[in-house]
Amino acid sequence: MSTLAALLDEGRARRVYSGAAWSVGDADGPLDRGRTGTRSWDGPPLDGDDLWDLASVTKPVAGLAVMALVERGALGLDATVGTYLPEYRGGDKETVTVSQLLAHTSGIPGQVPLFRDHPTRAALLDAVRLLPPTAAPGTRVQYSSQGFIVLGLIAEAATGRPLDELVAELVCAPAGLRDTVFRPDAGRRERAVATEDCPWRGRTVVGEVHDENAVVLGGVGGHAGLFSTLADMERLGIALAGGGRGLLAPDTFARMTAPHTDHLALRRALAWQGRDPVGSPAGDVFGPDSYGHTGFTGTSLWVDPATGRYAVLLTNRVHPTRAGDGIVALRRAFHDAAARLPRDGARPAPPCGMAG
């Protein structure tokens, strides 16, 4: 049994999650991959085709679509919210730039449970527009799901196309992601891993987005809503470890993954987290130029360009409840073990369709 398998088996034994799947490797493919546990505490064993709610790992995937639009000249990083969204003109967010939204320096507060008082899409989007800023744009790093909701609206306004279509065309198709979707169909929902026994919905959520604001938005948002499989996240990790090949031109990819906020204490790239000096979810071994993202449901994707290594971790740590923080230490331990994984030895077989 590998170090990673033992670590993640222990996480299930401690009831951090009912199931976990992982892949660690480089641009040539996985070095270690596997799964442990069940889709729910009383459900079937994971079989490798399981569908996971990515939660905020949606943000960098949507960010890749935004950067592809920048590359095509469809929108500009220095353009403002008011340029694309007429309803924001004359308001306190009009001058926020696309770059500031991507770097979480927009000043738009995040983690606001707007769904409680705004039960329709139109009402919730109005509430986002009217949220009082907590800082002037560009002066503070503040994680903002609401900012990424706005970013998704900008991508749609700039192209006249829905965000899910843009992500499918600009990210999923070139990276070969076959099961990475918003609003899974019935067949995919049958393969979904359970998340929370949700008090708001009165049921255990399976195959429906966990994030309540995303539910009100119809399941599609720049901040949350994507579902995926281990094989797809592995493909994305391999593409990122290879310098974003097939996704973005080298200079665009370098700009996206470079730190943009070091003068503000926390390290953020464009739609990616950087490795903060203290308490990074990437642990202590991944390099200072590494980047990635975590998701509230217990998912993460991290890449170290210095070593060419990626690490994917998929869990349902919110099942049956979001209470508990066991994922925090486990995730750091996972990344430390992933960074130390030797390159020698036989590689596991790639997922179906990846060979060649």
Q: How many DSSP-defined strands?
A: 11
Number of domains: 2
Distance between the termini: 27 Å
Unreliable runs, pLDDT <50, ≥5 residues? none
Strand order of the largest sheet: 2-1-11-10-9-8
The Cα radius of gyration reads 19 Å
- Assembly type of the chains comes to single chain
Largest sheet features: 6 strands, antiparallel
Mean pLDDT across the residues is 96
Order of helices and strands: HEEEHHHHHHEHEEHEHHEEEEH
Q: Briefly, what CATH class of the largest domain?
A: Alpha Beta
Helix/strand-derived category reads alpha+beta
The backbone outline, from C-alpha atoms, is: globular
Give me the CATH superfamily of the largest domain: DD-peptidase/beta-lactamase superfamily
CATH-defined architecture of the largest domain: 3-Layer(aba) Sandwich
Q: Into which percentage range does the β-strand content fall?
A: 5-15%
Brief overview:
With 356 residues, the protein is of the alpha+beta class.
Q: What report would you give on this structure?
A:
This protein is of the alpha+beta class and 356 residues long. It has two domains: 3-58 and 178-340, Beta-lactamase (3-Layer(aba) Sandwich), CATH 3.40.710; 64-164, Methane Monooxygenase Hydroxylase, Chain G, domain 1 (Up-down Bundle), CATH 1.20.58. The protein is 33% helix and 15% strand. It has twelve helices and eleven strands. The chain has helices spanning 3-13, 58-71, 81-84, 98-102, 121-130, 145-159, 163-175, 186-189, 212-216, 230-241, 250-257, 326-340; strands at residues 19-26, 29-37, 52-53, 181-182, 194-198, 203-206, 226-228, 273-274, 291-295, 299-304, 309-315. The strands form three sheets. Strands 2-1-11-10-9-8 form a six-stranded antiparallel sheet, sandwiched between helices. Strands 3-7-4 form a three-stranded antiparallel sheet. A hairpin with a 4-residue loop joins strand 10 and strand 11 (309-315). The chain starts with a helix and ends in a 16-residue tail after the last helix. The mean pLDDT is 96.
